[in-house]
Amino acid sequence: MGIFDRLAGRRDDEATRRALEHVQRGNALQHADRPQDGLREYLEAIQLDPKCADAQYGLGRCYHSLAQAENERAGGIIYFRAGLDNLSRAIAAFEETVRLQPSAADTHLNLGLAYDHASRLEDAERSYRRAISLDPDGMDGADGHFNLALLLYMRARGWAGLKQFPAYSVSNFGDPTLQQAFAEAEKAIALGERICQRDPSFLPNLILAHRRTAKWYSDYVQGEKAIEHYRAILRLNPQDTEAQEWLAKAERIRSVEKPSTESPQSQGGPPEQPDSSTQKIHFHCPHCSKKLNAPSDVAGKTAKCPGCARQLRIPSARQEQRQPAVAQVHNPASSQQWDARKLPGDDFLALLSNEEKRAVTDLSPIVYQVIIEYKKSGNLPNIIGVEERKIELLKRLPTEDLERLAKCVQLCAKGTQLAESNPSESAKLYREAIALNPYDALSLMSYGCLLGMQGNLGEGITWVEKALEVDPGHQQARNNLRAMKEALSRR
Description:
Blueprint: H1 3-7, H2 14-31, H3 35-48, H4 53-73, H5 84-100, H6 105-117, H7 121-134, H8 139-157, H9 176-198, H10 203-219, H11 223-236, H12 241-257, E1 280-284, E2 291-295, E3 302-304, E4 311-313, H13 354-360, H14 365-377, H15 388-395, H16 399-418, H17 423-436, H18 441-453, H19 457-470, H20 475-489
Antiparallel strand pairs: 1-2, 3-4
């Protein structure tokens, strides 16, 4: 008799014995990575004993494996874009297992993961929390904490449920959901450390939790916290290459950041020539202009700037006197020169009130193009998903204004796409969007957030404040402004 059946107190009879034989064969096939063959054994078991929870559980695991393989072949990510039929069957099997044996934490954990993959996020969160409550000190509880942390992290990044992640997301500094994600990850790790003391088989799960949490901290420029977790990985596995490389890079960053404390001229008389291991190179970050120092023996190597967290190449002593080329993202046109209310010689959106200007901003470029075509032909197709009031406002605008609105949306979208890979170009695109449409709160806020994430919090805050001048009801801008001010106060 299977473990779930024993938990349920079921009697051992001929039908359950024969069903168990099929379950055992199904388990062996599943562990041999033959889920399709395992399915047949579990289905035979259920035919003999419809209340066999172990068979339902194995059935769910096999269907889930098949769905994962289909999704991987289709290039899918955590939120499946393929294998959805098998994923639905897995969910149905896990739900039946929960009905038959509601106190099994492992089933709730696997059901939560299947819900997660199906983008049923509230159901997934509920299942993870149930697994944690049923096994607060065990492996299922630890995995439940970390799966919940990942769900909350995706939610904070704005990626939860997306079948394709955007190239960049404007994170909400200090978002409570993000803080909850880190808290759950730390709970998972603390519990995992205790579990490994009594059961070393959990070690791979613990290392994975440390690794993912370290990467999250690194993404949010929490270097010291990331270092803690990479060091923990090396404590658990001294041969871990990724942790070794990351920590070596962190030490190089620290050597770049640490200022020189010795001055040869202070000794009096001609200074001795220092050897290459002690000579310092003084230079500026080419991205944010932060003054840096580094030992000359690392000249030509790459490191991460402690000011803006971007990669830079350490120059040689012969290059260090050059004037730093400051990226445009940190040398923007002054926010003091911007005023949406004073645009001499520009009658853009002059026919609309401020509230109406906000209403026609940030629609799809296709909508603007449809209205432009309508002005030429007189034929207006049905535009689904756009309020009739906004359509009427757009019909009042000249073609030039419609073209500017469309171009602004395209520039802002492109800026967001490039914000992580090429922040200087992203900043340029945001500024072009703002120049075209100074009433676009999204571009104003996105530009401010980009500046803030690159280390220029003061100027970034100014631009987010201007977004709120344009649209006082913009809640995302309000949240970002509060969090950026909190981040600035901690400096």
